[in-house]
Amino acid sequence: MEVKHIKYLAVLFSAVTVLLAACRKDSFDYGVFTGDDINQQKKYECYDSIVVDPSNFTSNQVENLKADGKNVYAYLNIGSLENSQPYYKRYEDVMLDRYDGWPDEHWVDVTKEKWQRLVVQDRARVYKERGFEGLFIDNADVYCRYHMSEVYQSLKSMLASLKEQGFKLIVNGGDVFISETLKDGSAKKLYDGINQEDVFTTYDFNKKKYVRQTKKDTAYYERYLKKAKESGLDVYIVEYRSGKELSKKIDAYCERHGYKWYNADSIELN
């Protein structure tokens, strides 16, 4: 019985070791789960830093994740509005064009004080009260769509306000906006890091399938990310359904440059 017991413990130890190894193999530094709720928390166990939809999490749930050693970022849409938001009707007057590829979403006029108050006062207060210390800022691409000085300055003003409130900020996408802040030297004062989707893979909305990114766009993003890193910013990447061989290449690429990356199953990030 004693020998059997020892064998059982050895098998159990081996299984745990394999599980931990598998966990560490799965891009465990960083994960973006904005399509999930707390009921999916099992998948978070392999990740040190996670991005979530704050509307799905209570303050207790956020504190539990932080107590487990995780950096938890709340998704905050700074440049567009989805009709799934409970405050959608109250902000229809700031909506602009429909967002291509996302029929339930519109770009917004970020120069409107009403919208700025929602972002830097209302949303920021709610997320701070829930215990979020970081924000994942989305759709600064509004500056690319509406390329005006007023839009640029409004985005800078909102980011500065959020930074002053003590949030750590990661700006997703918005390469035109980011590049301009790198050029005028304001980047590090406004945010801490950037996240770029589709560096090596992308989703073709016309064909409705996941494909490799073009070599031209990959080369552009590589140059862009290098400039951001050289400016002292943290760099994160999100890819979509990267296969085994490509994932190895991305692993090596990120290791060389000090980036973190996440391989998502779908554009819904769930």
Write the layout of secondary structure elements.
Layout (H helix, E strand, L loop, with lengths): L1 H24 L4 E4 L15 E4 L6 H9 L3 E7 L2 E3 L12 E4 L6 E4 L4 H17 L4 E5 L3 H4 L3 H16 L3 E5 L2 H10 L2 H4 L2 E5 L3 E4 L4 E4 L2 H16 L3 E7 L3 H14 L2 E5 L6
Parallel strand pairs: 1-2, 2-3, 3-7, 7-8, 8-9, 9-12, 12-13
Antiparallel strand pairs: 4-6, 5-6, 10-11
Write up this protein.
- The chain is an alpha/beta fold and 270 residues long.
- The protein has one domain: TIM Barrel (Alpha-Beta Barrel), CATH 3.20.20.70.
- It has helices at residues 2-25, 59-67, 113-129, 142-145, 149-164, 175-184, 187-190, 215-230, 244-257; strands at residues 30-33, 49-52, 71-77, 80-82, 95-98, 105-108, 134-138, 168-172, 193-197, 201-204, 209-212, 234-240, 260-264.
- Helix 3 (113-129) packs parallel to helix 5 (149-164).
- The termini are far apart.
- The model is unreliable at 1-22 (pLDDT under 50).
